[in-house]
């Protein structure tokens, strides 16, 4: 079965990281071809290094783009895919249109976040979803949102959990640690709410708590957040590391994970943090409700609620070693069922076969 995985870019980011992970595993009877409308980059290089086919069209991806539709039509005519699986707004729009024009039988669109659309865009995507074979999302949260957002549209919707390769680590222990270490792996954009986390840590610093907060990622707020660290007197307590290709060392050396997004589809970094045994403080968005359960492996907080973020970090700072160990143990256990690559591939194969 030949499947074209179409995304807007193949440089860096959540969906790009996912494509790299898929490329590194045996997909058995499914041949994935990785295609981007726009530029390639880090993800492109990594996928190629694994011996997989990558095609970066390098064309205008802005909706609507005649060049993108024509380019995809030519590609589909040459490749004759059994399935076109798109992810992201630009890829979904142009991928569906081109697939319909070329008679592709199975068209799967993947919504990777929470759409914020104008009335016209909402109508357009409602139609695109309705003529697609299936709409895939990574969490029940996004599924409920889409059903409500496109309430007058009829489309087939499936939840397919993201996957992770368990790193094989043991539960962490706080014994002998003087300073608790917190971590965020995130794009530095307003929707991620990193500044609110910094304000919470500033309050805790004034109360005499010691901690270390590492932030890995880049984005439009990088300069703003760097200045805010200085203004809040957090130099030496908070470090912005910028974009890193490999973040395993940060997961291994940290004690807690923080995700303060206002909007989220399904967080790869949250899944990874739990796999490394990090109890997590996360807003009630995206897949968090499926992953963080009560105070067993972390704390769920309301989005845009700085006070709850502050209180949860304070609870983490005051956590005793025995309780922490049990939370770390359950963090690892919480993603061991239903989040393997085989679970992911089996779910996709069922969708592809049922729609082709």
From TrEMBL:
Coiled-coil stretches: none
Species per Swiss-Prot/TrEMBL record: Marinobacter azerbaijanicus
EC number: 2.4.-.-
Name of the protein this chain belongs to: Glycosyltransferase
Domain Glycosyl transferase family, residue spans: 170-331
Keywords on record: Glycosyltransferase, Transferase
Domain Glycosyltransferase subfamily 4-like N-terminal: 28-165
GO molecular function per UniProt: glycosyltransferase activity
């Amino acid at each position: 079965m030949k499947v074209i995985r179409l995304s807007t870019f193949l440089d860096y980011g959540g969906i790009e990281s996912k494509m790299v992970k898929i490329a590194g595993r045996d997909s058995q009877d499914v041949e994935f071809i990785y295609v981007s409308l726009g530029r390639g980059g880090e993800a492109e290089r990594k996928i190629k290094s694994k011996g997989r086919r990558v095609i970066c069209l390098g064309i205008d991806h802005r909706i609507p783009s005649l060049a993108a539709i024509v380019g995809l039509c030519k590609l589909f005519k040459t490749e004759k895919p059994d399935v076109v699986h798109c992810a992201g707004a630009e890829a979904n729009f142009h991928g569906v249109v081109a697939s319909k024009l070329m008679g592709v039988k199975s068209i799967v669109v993947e919504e990777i976040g929470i759409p914020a659309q104008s009335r016209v865009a909402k109508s357009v995507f409602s139609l695109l979803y309705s003529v697609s074979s299936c709409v895939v999302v990574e969490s029940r949260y996004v599924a409920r949102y889409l059903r409500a957002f496109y309430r007058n549209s009829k489309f087939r919707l499936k939840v397919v959990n993201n996957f992770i390769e368990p790193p094989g680590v043991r539960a962490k222990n706080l014994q002998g640690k003087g300073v608790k270490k917190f971590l965020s792996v995130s794009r530095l954009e307003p929707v991620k709410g990193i500044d609110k986390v910094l304000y919470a840590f500033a309050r805790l610093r004034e109360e005499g708590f010691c901690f270390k907060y590492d932030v890995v990622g880049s984005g439009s707020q990088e300069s703003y957040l760097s200045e805010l660290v200085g203004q809040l007197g957090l130099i030496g307590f908070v470090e912005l590391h910028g974009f890193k290709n490999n973040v395993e060392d940060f997961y291994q050396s940290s004690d807690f994970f923080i995700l303060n997004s206002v909007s989220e589809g399904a967080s790869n970094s949250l899944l990874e943090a739990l796999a490394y045994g990090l109890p997590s403080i996360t807003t009630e968005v995206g897949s968090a409700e499926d992953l963080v359960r009560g105070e067993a492996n972390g704390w769920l907080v309301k989005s845009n609620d700085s006070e709850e973020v502050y209180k949860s970090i304070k609870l983490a700072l005051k956590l005793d070693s025995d309780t922490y160990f049990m939370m770390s143990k359950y963090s690892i256990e919480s993603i061991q069922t239903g989040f393997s690559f085989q679970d992911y591939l089996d779910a996709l194969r069922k969708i592809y076969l049922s729609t082709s």
